[in-house]
Amino acid sequence: MVETAHATDPDEPIAQLFRIAEQRRALNREEEAQVRRARVRGYSWEAIATALGISRQAAHKKFGRK
After folding, report:
1. Is the Cα torsion angle 19, 22, 27, 28 positive or negative in sign?
2. Handedness of CA 55, 61, 47, 31 (dihedral sign)
3. What is the pLDDT of residues 8-57, one digit of tens each?
4. Interior angle at CA 31, CA 26 and CA 16, nearest 5
5. Which of 5, 18, 54, 59 is the most buried (most CB within 10 A)?
6. What is the rounded CA–CA span in Å between residue 49 and residue 13?
7. In terms of domain of life, where is this protein from (predicted)?
8. Integer Cα distance of 16 and 6 in angstroms
């Protein structure tokens, strides 16, 4: 059962968790868009990975064509 009674109070932990989850989704969308832009502009997976603080292989696995 999902408790939503307290979700309307912005100071409640559950409301904060909903807010954080939405921010995470938005940030993931923005990250994906910027990776696509970088690839279109010719940046290497190595450069993208370095900017993200991950390995080239991890960047390619996460953002490469599927």
Report:
1. positive
2. negative
3. 777 899 999 999 999 999 999 999 999 999 999 999 999 999 999 999 99
4. 30
5. 59
6. 34
7. Bacteria
8. 11
- What does the DSSP assignment read for 7-38? TTSTTSHHHHHHHHHHHHHHHHHHHHHHHHHH
**Could you tell me what percent of the chain has a pLDDT over 90?**
80
Tokens of 14: 């559950």
User: Are 49 and 55 a contacting pair, CB within 8 Å?
Assistant: yes
Type of residue at 8: T
